[in-house]
Amino acid sequence: MASSNNVVLDVHQLRMRYDDKDVLHDVTFQARRGEVLVMLGPNGAGKTTTIEILEGFRRRSAGEVEVLGADPEHGDEHWRARIGVVLQSWRDHAKWRVTELLAHLGTYYAPYSTTTIQRPWDTAQLIDLVGLTEQADAKISTLSGGQRRRLDVAIGIVGRPEVLFMDEPTAGFDPAARRDFHDLVHRLADLEDTTVLLTTHDLDEAEKLADRILVLAGGRVIADGSPDELSRSIAGEAQVSWTIDDQRFVHTTTESTRYVHELFRQHGEAIADLEVRRASLEDTYMTLVRRAESGAAAVHTLAEVTR
C-alpha cells in the first residue's frame, strides 16, 4: 500500500465474489487529495460494488483497500465523519423542511471538528452552495426531482468530507443544475481539497469534471488516465477531412501534422474546409469497452492501452 500522505484512496488487487461469480477482478488504483476521479463503465461493470466497498458498506472478498489511511471494513466513527456519500436517492424525512433537516444532520458532525476542518458546514452557506436558497423553508415533499438531487448532494457534504463518494449524482438534473453541480465539484476539489470519486454514464460530464478517468468493464480496470490521455490512447489516430472543388475527402492517420503539411504541399490553396479530429472520449470509451467485451486481454494501465 502507498506511503504518501497525499494518497487518500489506495486500492490493490480488490476482488469481489458473489456465490461462484467474480464481479471484481484485481481492481487496482489510487486517488490523491483534491483529485476528481470519475469511474466509467457499462451496467454490471462493478462500479457500485467498488464504491460500496470503499464506503465500508460491503465486505470485499480479497485485496487491500485504504481510505484516508484506514481499512473501510474497520473504520470507526472518527473515520466515517471524514467521508461523504451522495446516494442515488434519499427517500426519508419528507415532512422535514430543508433547513431543519440539514441543521439536524449537521449536529452529528460537530464533535468531529478539527483544527483544520470545522464541521459541519454552516447550514445557510451549504444551502446556498447547492442552489436551494429559495427552497430553504420548503418541506422536502414539495421539492422537484432536481431539487431533491441537490438536497441529496447537500446531505452528502454536510460534514465537510475529505473524501466524497457519489454514484450517478446528476441523474434527474436539468442542464442548469448540472452546470451548477460541476461548479460545486470543482470548488470542493480546488478550494476544500476534497477527493471526489463519482460514477456517471455521461461522458461529456466525465470529461468536464475528471482529473482522471477509470474505466471498468467486466469487473476489471481496462483504462486509467486523464481525459486527454485516454482520448489519445487508441493508437493516437486522427481523422483528417477536407474538400477540393466541392469534393470531400477523409483520411485516418497517426501523423496528422505531417499529413496536413504534405496535403498543402500538393494542393495548396485548393484545399477548403480542413478539419483534424482526434478520437473523442466517447470514441475511446466505446472502443475500450468493445475490446473488453470481445474477450481481449484486460488493460490495467494507460501504457498498456497505447502499446
From TrEMBL:
* UniProt xrefs under InterPro entries: AAA+_ATPase, ABC_transporter-like_ATP-bd, ABC_transporter-like_CS, ABC_transporter_ATP-binding, P-loop_NTPase
Q: Where in the cell is it found?
A: Cell membrane
Q: How does it sit in the membrane?
A: Peripheral membrane protein
Family annotation (Pfam families): ABC_tran (PF00005)
The record's GO molecular-function terms, alphabetically, read:
ATP binding
Q: What SUPFAM superfamilies does UniProt report for this protein, alphabetically?
A: P-loop containing nucleoside triphosphate hydrolases
**What are the record keywords, sorted?**
Antibiotic resistance, ATP-binding, Nucleotide-binding, Transport
Q: Does the keyword Nucleotide-binding apply?
A: yes
Q: What is this protein called?
A: ABC transporter ATP-binding protein
